[in-house]
Specification:
The protein has 148 residues and is mostly helical. It has 5 helices and no strands. The termini are far apart.
Length: 148
């Protein structure tokens, strides 16, 4: 798989996340949870954006993005539009990172040891894509449960 093929999947799934956020009936419901669920869809979407902006944008592309992981889970009350804007910034960072990345870079060591030891960039990109998809599924499920 090439970085550009990965980019296509990241872009598709981030656009799907934007669509899920947009499909919430109102801004307030975006911040609600269901019994036994700790994180709202709004917080999950902010987490997706912050995670990708940091691990791809900052660590690979050198964007200078400073992550506030606590804010990803503690922010409340933003509009759907504001949350979608955060996801669009993540798309821009992912595009910046992957659009012109040479395939050979996938075999290079990722700059941080945060994924269970030294890993290749290709491994980390795959791991982060799985993480995005996991949370996208949670956002979808919460929307369907809350918007009955």
């Amino acid at each position: 798989m090439t970085p550009q093929e990965l980019l296509a999947i990241y872009r598709k799934n981030l656009e799907s996340t934007i669509q899920e956020v947009t499909n919430f009936p109102d801004d307030t419901m975006l911040w609600e949870t269901a019994p036994g669920v700790l994180n709202s869809a709004g917080n999950l979407a902010l987490h997706i954006a912050g995670n990708l902006r940091y691990f791809l944008g900052n660590e690979i592309a050198g964007t200078g993005y400073v992550r506030d992981r606590d804010a990803e889970f503690n922010t409340k009350g933003l509009s759907r539009s504001e949350v979608c804007d955060a996801l669009r910034l993540a798309i821009a960072d992912v595009e910046l990172t992957l659009a012109n990345m040479p395939k050979e870079m996938l075999g290079n060591n990722y700059p941080l040891d945060r994924f269970g030891g030294v890993q290749t960039t290709g491994f980390v990109l795959t791991y982060l894509l799985a993480h995005l998809n996991y949370h996208l599924g949670q956002v979808n499920y919460l929307r369907r449960i809350l918007a009955k």
